[in-house]
Amino acid sequence: MAAERSETERARLPSQGEPWAALRERLVQLGAKDVDWRGKRSAVYVFHPGEDVLEVAKEAYALYQSENALGPAAFPSLRRMESEVVAMAIDLLNGPAEATGNITSGGTESILLAVKSCRDAAAAKGIDVRGAKIVLPRTAHPAFDKAAHYLGLLTVRVPVGANFEADPDAMRRAVDARTLMIVGSAPCFPYGLVDPIPALAEIARDHDLWLHVDACVGGYLNPFAEREGVVLPAWDFRVDAVNTISADLHKYGYAAKGASTLLHRSAAQHAHQIFQFDDWPAGGMSTPTVAGTRPGGAIASAWAVLHYLGVEGYRERTRRALSARRRIAEGVSALGLRIHGDPRLALLAYGMPEGDPVSIFAVWKGLYERGWFSGVVQQPDGIHLMLSPAHDEVADRYLTDVAECLAAARRAGGGAEIAAPVRYA
C-alpha cells in the first residue's frame, strides 16, 4: 500500500497500480472526519430520503456512469430519460403544453442558463445588453451574481421586508430602463420563505421583464407540501408572467448529484438557451447546457428516483420533512429562541431574541462539537437548517442538545464575540 502523505504534499501518480480493496479502505478512511450525514446529523449539503432511495439513486447512476448525453444519437436512452424527467417536472410545476427544458448539473447552471436565455432574448430584440441589470431580493442565491459576472450583466440586490420576504414595492423602485430580469425565490435558501411571486409578476408585466423563479430548493418539495395542505402563494407556471423556473433534482428530488432542471414556458424562449457552432472540421455542435459532456449517470439517477418514489413516495417523505421542521420550530420557540419569518416548508433559521446577550453562534459551536452540522445566517444572526425526511427521527435528540448548548452558552457569559462559524463554500 502506498505511503500516506500530508495534505500539503503534492500527490504523484503511483508508479504501479493498487488493488481496489486497499483503495476502497483508503477512501473510507479519507471520509472519517466528514460530517455524519448518514446518522442524520447534517442539515445542509446532503438530502437523506432513506437508504432505499439512496440505493436506487446509486445503482441507476452506476448503470449509466459511462454514457454521455452529449451524444443523443449514440445514447437515445438518455435523451428519452431526460425528456421524461423534464415532462414530469413541467407537470408538477403546472407548465403549459409548450413548456420545455433540460436537466443541468445543478442549480447554479440552471440559473446561469436562465440568465443567458434572458440576455440573448433581449439582444435578439436589439436591446443593448452590456451592463444590463437583474433586480433581485437580498435573499436570492449568489448564483445570480455569478451568472451576471460571467455574462456581462449587473445585479441590483434589494432589501427584503420585515417578514424576510421580497419587498415588491422596493423591487419596483429598483427597476429602470436597463433592467432585463426580476427574480423571486420559492423558497429562498436563507430562511425557507416563498417570495410573493404574483406581486413580482405584476412588476414583470408592467415593465416587460423576464421573471425567473428560483425553486432550486422547492421545485420538488413545494408541489407535495401543497398536497399536504401547506398554503403557499402561487409560485410556479400558474403565474402567467413566470418565464423560467430552476428546480434541483439533487435536493428534494433525492436524485444523485449533480442534477437540476431548468424549465421554460415555451420552446421559443428555450431556443435562446442553446449554443450552436459549426466552423470547425468536426461538424456542427449544438448543446443545450453549459457542459459539453453530460454524465449519463445523473440523468439515469433522476429518472429512476422519480419513478421509484412516485407522487405517494414524495408525499410521504415530504410529510416527514415538514414534521421535522414543525417539531424543531416549536421546540426552539419554546426555549425562547426566535424563528426568522414564517417558514412553511422544510427549511428554517432561528436565532436569539432581540437584545439577548448570548450569541447564537455559541449555540452553533456547541451543537457542532456534539456532531451536528448546519449552516448559519447573518443580519440577523441565526442557525440555518435544511431538513430531510430522516431528520424526523432525530428531532427530539436535536432539541435536547439545543437546550443544553443554550444553557451552556448562558453559563459561559454569552459568547457575543463569536463570529459566524461557517460559510457556504
Task: Describe the protein's architecture and organization.
- There is one protein chain.
- The two termini are 33 Å apart.
- The protein has 425 residues and is an alpha/beta fold.
- It contains twelve helices and 13 strands.
- The model has no long low-confidence stretch (mean pLDDT 94).
- The chain folds into two domains: 59-306, Aspartate Aminotransferase, domain 2 (3-Layer(aba) Sandwich), CATH 3.40.640.10; 312-411, Aspartate Aminotransferase, domain 1 (Alpha-Beta Complex).
- The protein has helices at 20-30, 51-63, 76-92, 107-124, 143-151, 168-174, 197-207, 222-227, 267-270, 296-334, 360-369, 395-411; strands at residues 100-104, 133-137, 154-158, 179-185, 210-214, 242-248, 260-264, 275-277, 285-287, 338-339, 347-351, 375-377, 382-386.
- Helix 2 (51-63) runs antiparallel to helix 10 (296-334) and helix 10 packs across helix 12 (395-411).
What's the short story on this structure?
This protein is an alpha/beta fold and 425 residues long. Helices cover 38% and strands 14% of the residues. β2, α5 and β3 (154-158) form a beta-alpha-beta unit.
